[in-house]
Amino acid sequence: NSQIVVIYNNESTIDATWTTSQSEDGVIVTFSNVAGPNIQVISGEWLVVECEEDRLQLHRGDDILVLERTCN
After folding, report:
1. Measuring CA to CA, which residue among 55, 60, 2, 7 is closest to residue 32?
2. Could you tell me the mean pLDDT of each successive run of 10 residues in the chain, 72 residues long?
3. Domain residues for 29?
4. How far lies 18's CA from each of 49, 65, 69, in Å?
5. Count of the separate structural domains present in the chain
């Protein structure tokens, strides 16, 4: 069951897909079909290590990805 994620800044908008799964280590978020300048590096599997209402912290090896939600 995949979902759409939209990544944007002042210059571009990127659509990608994500799925979740369970492993022995915890919840895994997998990003795929990520196409855009300087963003493809997030493709692949990330382990959720912190989950708050407005923030997710994901790890993949030595890499850390923090996703924050801002509601206006």
Report:
1. 2
2. 73 84 96 79 93 94 90 72
3. 3-68
4. 17, 14, 16
5. 1
